[in-house]
Amino acid sequence: xxxxxRKREETNTPNPSEESSIESSELLDDPSAESADxxxxxxxxxxxxWWRRVLTKTNELLKTDIRDLWTAEGxxxxxxxxxxxYAILVRTxxxxxxxxxxxxxxxxxxxxxxxxxxxxLEIVRNEIGTALRNKKAPLKFADSGPTCILVVGxxxxxxxxxxxxxxxxxxxxxxxxxxxxxxxxxxxxxxxxKIWSDRIGCxxxxxxxxxxxxxxxxxxxxxxIAENYDVCIIDTAGxxxxxxxxxxxxxxxxxxxxxxxxxxxxxxxxxxDATAGQNAISQxxxxxxAAGCTGIVLAKLDGSAKGGVIVPIxxxxxxxxxxxxxxxxxxxxxxxxxxxxxxxxFQ
Length: 347
Ligand SMILES: Nc1nc2c(ncn2[C@@H]2O[C@H](COP(=O)(O)OP(=O)(O)O)[C@@H](O)[C@H]2O)c(=O)[nH]1
Ligand SMILES: [Mg+2]
Fold this sequence. Notes:
The protein is α/β, with parallel strands linked by helices. 52% of the residues lie in helices and 12% in strands. It has a domain at 147-338: P-loop containing nucleotide triphosphate hydrolases (Rossmann fold, 3-Layer(aba) Sandwich), CATH 3.40.50. The chain has 15 helices and 10 strands. Mean pLDDT is 82; it is low at 1-44.
């Protein structure tokens, strides 16, 4: 099974069996996924255990804290229990709205009765599973000609690393990939992407330190069109959603791209740092409004106890989480899978 071999496969995913085979190839393609599965389960195709490894910190926080709510006599569902549980749920950054929904659901079903931990976890899984259902969206590709992906976000969120991981994946699936080093603000940023491109073996258009990022985008698109690249991915300097001048600069970059290829950029991916919790949510809000983002890469999920942050992001902003970052290596990027995510988090 070759994922991303044909761009059409990504744009049209009407066939659920095709979709699931894409996911499994994605995970099995990842050496870290295989080794993790082997260490936890004899079945190397067990995706849930792989997601569990990634979500260890959030999972531990939840399970330990929730377990602590129980005494030897069990636990009665009263106001005290519900407010203690609510506080734990909120700590995962799943958002007040979701925590309230779970609390209300437990109250409706168990009020003044004893409840077991497994009953709580089942309700949590159901509510989050329902909220995230249908929140999966594959990467969008151009119908013809090069696909252009613009990558945006605040400083240090993981943009450049995520671009490298994505380029690596696309290259491995036989796409001809071109990178555009559009973070001309920091000299080291261009060098960082250059090192990744050498390692991956893909081409790159370099931006001079201090030069106009729009011109890097222009040259990247020109080359991509002239030399028949399948995908070009353009890096940008970190910025805050509140910096109007820098958000306008993004608009300009997008206009430059749209002039080269109608309908481009096909994706504007916002990279969020999963450890940023509530800040990631305000970034999602600001960027989705100001930069017209089409999807999210949630980086650093491996080091975060706030994995629940995916819930309000996917629910409130209608921005699908397309990929999650799971480490610093080129292999450490996976397609977001809501079902496996939910199972792994609350099992
Ligand atoms: N653990 C972990 N670290 C990451 C991940 N993605 C990026 N990083 C690290 O975060 C730091 C900032 O990443 P970088 O790509 O330079 O961020 P940028 O400023 O947004 O381009 C680097 O040290 C990366 O190695 C991830 O998924 N997991
Ligand atoms: Mg960078």
